[in-house]
Every structure is written in C-alpha cells, then in structure tokens.
Amino acid sequence: MSVLKRLLSDRAASLGAAIILGLVLVAILAPWIAPYPGDVTAFHLADRLQPPSAEHIFGTDRMGSDVFSRLLFGARITISIAVIAVGVSVAIGVPIGLLAGYYGGFPGGFLMRTSDIFLAVPQIVLAIAIAQTLGPSVENVILALSLTYWPFWARLVYAETNALKKQTFVEAALALGASDLRVMVLHILPNTASAIIVRTSIGMGATILTAAALGFLGLGAPAPTPEWGRTISEAREFLPEAWWYAAAPGLAIFLVVMGFNLLGDGLRDILDPKLRKGSR
Amino acid sequence: MFVVFFISNVVPTDPARIVAGENATEAQVVALRTEMGLDQPLYVQFGRYIADLATGDLGKSLYTQRAIADDLLHRLPATLELTIAAMIISIGVGVPLGVISAVKRNSWIDQLLRILSVSGLAVASFWLAMELQMYFSTKLGWTPLNGRIGGWGPDEITGFYVIDSLLGGDWASLWDTLHHMLLPAVTLALPAAATLVRFTRAGVLEVINSNYVLYERAMGFPTSLIIWKYVLRNALISTVTQIGLIFGALFAGAVVVEAVFDWPGLGTYAVQSILQSDTKAILGFSIVVGIVFIGVNLLVDIVHTFIDPRTIQ
Amino acid sequence: MTDALLTVDGLSLGFRGEGGFAHILSDANMTMRRGEIMGLVGESGCGKSTLAGAILGVLPRTSLQVRGGTINFDGIDMLSGANTRAQESVRGRRVTFIPQDPFTSLNPVFTIGQQITELMKWKSPRRAPGGVRLPALMTPYPRARRRADRDQVMEMLNLVQLPNPERLLKKYPHEVSGGQRQRLMIAMALLPEPDLIIADEPTTALDVTIQAQILGLLRSLATDRGVAVMLTTHDLGSAYEICDRITVMYAGQDVETAPVAEFFNRPTHPYTAKLLDSLPEGGGGMTGIPGELPSFYAPPPGCRFQTRCERMTEACKQRPPSDIAGPDHVVRCFHPLHATITDALATKEASL
Q: What residues does each domain of chain B span?
C-alpha cells in the first residue's frame, strides 16, 4: 500500500503509470473507440494518403484506411506481444535462476553458462536470428523475444538467490524442517519480488522497442496487421509527403516505452533502496 | 548460435526448396538437398557446421554464392566505422552533460537533461532515423540521403573510409564520408548518449560527496579542476564498464539504422539475408557480432584495470 | 585580542533536512592567535567538525543555511558566498587542512606524487599571486618553480619521517599504510607554508599506538614554523599533550576557553568539570555524562547544557555572556564553579 502511495507521489512514475493504464484501456476498448473499426482490414483507395483532418485525425494510409483507428488496434498487438513475451521470459528465467542460485554446483553452473551464451549476442541480433528462422508471425515474434530475454531474469534471480540463501531466515526455515521447494517458493522468491518487478517494468520497454524493430524489418506479423513497427516501414516510401503516416506510430511507440521506463525508474527508487543513493 | 541452428532445423521450412525456386521439379530439389548436405541427419549437419566454423568457414551464402565469411569481413569495417563514430558522439555529448547534470543537480538544466535522457531511451531508432532522414536529407537537402560515400571512395587500405582517406590525403572523400556518416551516427548515438548521461550523473554524484573531494575543496583547488579532472576520473570508472555494454548495443543497433540509411555494413547484409531467408548468412552474422561483442567486453576489462589502479593488485 | 589570526564570532548555522531545520551551531565563538595550538574539544555531535568545515568552506551547500555571525581570517571574510575568489586563494595556501580519515581523503586513482604536484602547482609558497587567469585545466606549471617545489617536497617528506620518498611518490594511496598517509597529509598541510592548519580529529582513524607519534610530529613541526593549529578532538588526553589553549564546545555553543594548565586545574563551567570527571584514570576517551544531548531540531533556548546541569536556574534560558574566570580564561555560565570577575564585582558592590 505504501509503495503505491509513494509511487503516486513521484510525478514521473505516476505519469508513466498513467500512460500505461491509458494504453491498456485503449487496447481493450479499441473496437468501440476507434472511429473506423473496420479499417484494420478494409480499404478505400479513393481516400488514400489524406492528411490529418476532422474525419481522420491522424490522416489515412496507403490503402485509405484511418491511421488513428489502426493505431488503436496496433496497441492491442503491442500490448499482447510485450505482456506475453515478458511473461514467458519471467516464467522461464525465474525458476532457472532460482534453481541455479539455490543448488549451485554443476547444474547451477550449467544453467548460468547457458544463459551467458544467450547474453553473448546482442538481443536484437538474437531475436532477428530466431524470428527469421521461425518465419514472420506474431506468435513467432513472441517466441523469439521470450527466448532472447529470459536470461535477464535468470541472472537477476540467480544473484539474489545466491545472496539470500546464506541469510539466517533461510537457515532457520531449513532447520525447522521446511523442504527445499518450500524454502525457495515461500522464503526466497518473495524477497526477490521487488527486483523482478523493477526489471520487468524496464524490460517491457526494451521488449516493445525490439518487437517494433522486428516488425520494421519485416519479421513481425504479415500485412495487413496494424503493428506499429510494420506500419512505420510501410510509411517509409511515402515520406516526406505523408509525414503523419509514420509519425503517428513512431510517437505511439515513444510514449509507451517512455511510460514503462518512467514507471521502472520510479519503482526502482522505491523498491530498491540500494540503488537510490545515486539517483538523487 | 547453436540455439538458432537447432531451431532452424526444427522448423518445417526447406532451404533447398526456397533456393530451387517455386517452379523447380521435385528431382531438382532433391539434388540440391544432397548438394547442400540437407539429407544428412541433424547431428551430422551440426558437426559439419562446427567443423567448418573452426576453420573460419561460415558456409556459402544461398544467393550471392560467395563465402559468408568473406561477405561479412568485407562489410565489417563499414559497421565498425559507423559504430565508433556513434560511440565518439555519445561519449562526447553524454559524459559532459552527465557531469553538468550532477553538478547542477535539481536545477532546471538537470531536470531538462533528465527528461531528454529518458526520452532518448524511449525512441525507436529506426523511426528516428526515418524522421531525421526525411527532414535533413529530403526536405532540407543538408545531408546525403543514404549510403556511405558519393563517389568511388578513397583507395581501400583498411576499409575504414575515414582512415583510408586520411592515409591517401583524399580530403574530398574524407569530407564526403563524414557528411554521409553524420545522420546515421547521430541517430545511433542518441540512446547511448542518454544512457551515458544517466550513468555519469550517478557516478559523479557518488564521488562528489567523498572525503577526497572534500579534502580537495578544503585545500582550495580550483572548482573546475576538481570536477573535470578529479571527480570525472573516478566517476568514469563505473562509466567505462557501461561503455562496453553501450558499444555492444550500438553495434547491434546499427543493424536497424543501417537498413534505413542503406549503409553497406553488416546490418544491411543481415536485413537482405532476412528478406531472402538465408539462414546460414544470418547465423554467420550473429556469430561475427557475438565475437565482436566478446572482444569489446575483454577490451573494457583491460581499460578498466588501466584507469582504476586499485584493481591491479 | 589584537594578535587574532582567525575570529569566529556569533556563528549560527544549520541544515535543512527531512526532520526540519537542524540547529548545529548557535552563537559559536572562537579565536585563534598566531602560532598557537588550540584544541577545540567536545563530544561527537557538538559541532566542532561543522565549525572546521565552515572555516574551510566545505559544508554541503544545498542544505546549508547560515543564520548569522562572521568568520574572519586576517581581515578576509571566509563565510560570505560573495567572496569565493579571495577564499579560494586563502584555502590551501594560508589555511590548510588535515582530514580526519587519511584512508579516504586521498584520491584513489592518482598517485601520491601526482596529488602533491597538483597541490604545489596551485598552492606552492613560490607561486606569485595574481597574473593571468587561465581555465584551471590549461594553467601551466613553470619548470623552474616546479624544480624548487620538488626539492621542498622531498625535504618535507624527510621531515615527516617518511622513508624512501622517491618510491612513495610513485605509489597509489591504497598501497600505503594509514600512519604513513597521515604523515603525508601533515606534509601536504605544511608544504604551502600556511599561517593556520585546521586538523579535524587527525588521529581518530589511526591505531592508538601511532596516535601519539603523529600528534607529536604535528606539534613539533608547527611550533618550529610558527604555524597555528586548530585541533578538533574528543580526546582530552591528546588535547592536554599538545595544545596551548583549549576551547570546549557543547551542542553548538562554546562554553569555556582557557590555557591548557588553567583548564585542567580550574575547570569553571559545569560541563567542563563533568567532562574532566568522566575521564577514566590514565587519560583516554570519555565515558559519558548522565543525560542526552538536546535535540538539534528543537534545542532549548539559552544555555544548551541546562537539560543536564544541576545548577540550572531560570536565568539559564538566556545565553550567558562571556565572563572572565582567570587570566585568559573565559567562561559562559551564570553559575560557574569558581569565582569570576562578575562575582568579584558583585561582592565588591555588596560590601560597599
């Protein structure tokens, strides 16, 4: 409760939270608030590349579809990619980090070396390589991002678990006869939660940027999906005349990533006092 | 990379069919498959690939029909040159701004820099690249639209055009190279500069309250000397570690930025390979990037011991 | 006093923090004379280090608030924010500093030689004042002066009994022991040939075995050169060993000042007496006085010691004026333990 209160007292973090909340609402309500919900697939070639007007506040695209409406539906794709990919990364990374950190030894070392291999290649390159092999689709983008990003959580939880397992409260729980599983899930995991939450918020921003880059490179969902990265790459050949076409999704990406970054910074200041000192 | 190798073989796409083209007969596809070694069991394929890898052979590009290793090596200098230029810009801008931000903490300039650095990290680089290109090249005509150089370029010695034109005394090429490099390098540098502002700020703030800075102030050393020599040197120790990560990020980010500016480096090669489903080329690309990445991190460790005498022992 | 080198007069300052305004110094007074060694004594938290910091201009500027008073060094205002250039040229040159913790007070990433060279470049006694002011990073270090400075450095390192100075200069601070570092800090404080050295608990961080050596060294070198030393300490034993005069502080106020013999023979302020009583046999640290320091945020008006003083009366709600208890012996108390001039005058008046 006090975390929420402190979060709201931080202007930047609450702005971030508001942006994300807005995005989620827009994504859910897209079919109802979009002025032309049919325009995701429908096209009106007579109206193509119209500048912003009262009817089309962000103009129209190469097919004559309403850019704003497609943008709202694009939010759904962005949100689902980010949430599922980060969710899967957490689901893979956290247990691996927990097991490796708790048991250590050869299996722990093996798991961590594996994650090192993943970290040796820059994320976008790995994601490109995986997405390319899998073929262009939203599901494959999600899979590629999950496979790319899980080591971050594994590393984080590994480090925390390693430190926590030597703490007195863990030894006490073991002495009282608690099983390893019980200690890991009930005693260690809750203590790593704040680090995981902070990392997740910042990770969402990075994931959205990478997903958009994949879309831009043609590795994301196929046309006519209104994915933001893909829209930007479609808009490219119509620059600089149809400036609104690329500007709208670009600004949308900027806003969302900014939201997650601001929230992540705020959460880190509140939840991780070790890191607080430097930020003042 | 091993991961990618396996995934590429689990997925039900047939490279042989893609290479042969849509109109190929079944017999042609089978023949091609044998030629490419695709009829062998998976572990044999993998073993061969690793064996080739050990000798520096990354296989043949499906389309250019040239050795992938040669293609990549030929393009590496272009990417490195762009990355290094972006690195110089981001350090030159990010570190001083970070120091100013820390020294004038909580002032309007600090607030402004914080907003700018958060924004710099949130921009999609390919989008920024497009917008800058549209404005400065297409509309204003101040910078070339794309590519690395207008004419033939300087006589090739190292493959780095800046160095080559300096060595050859080819000033026109030098100017043209720098002119071409400006926009892509700036685009690439922005998120890195934003990260450096944040890290330098935090580093300086940590040092500025230390006892040795208090001593230097008490002994009446000029304030600018304390900040730009004594504080900065200490603050940079943590920043240098960060610079290694940033170089990796820049190198990777170059993939997308190169694609927008048609910069003839590894990035455009990777994107072309993507469009042509050339898995081996992509794989080779990942390996080369991974090697550069590891090399840079090694270099950072060395520099770190060099600037922090406490780690030598 | 006419031969005053440094005068702190009625200094009141504190810091804004989360708990409100912390009153650290309230009407603090102190005088340093040329060539004397003066001990500024008090428990931790009495404001002695803050007073030293105020003279040196190193208090955190963002939260500092000065509510009144002056600091005057030989006619130069050392407190005003409008006088920074003159202050910068005094600090490190005419007033130098020996820090509390020699372990963290040298810059870890530069060699000792580099740091001494930098000091001499800016603060050498041979450096002519004035001249063209270039940006600090571009200011040259003339070769002739550099050579003379180096000779002086070598001589000084020998004087502070640092063995093998040539090799020492090439080392980094972490490669040198604490005692050697503090000798180095003493050398660096003496090199600019200052009028005053401010030594802030210079031996607290060191082993007990070398504390006496370091203090003895400081005393002999300072006396030889006629340099005044302001020594803040909570250790009455070391103050007794090396000081000419002692000023006692309590909770941000000065309470008593006297020459060292007078101070130990006739402590006149109730706090001073308690302080001396609390000394364990054979010197050393303090064991404590019943009661607690008053809160910084809401200190009592008048004499701060009233909350722990048996002699406290209604009068103590006012800050007692300076009273003379003996030759060069000033006390600020309405109920001193020994007769003062005020008492003498009162008896005289009564007898008339």
A: 2-54, 75-311
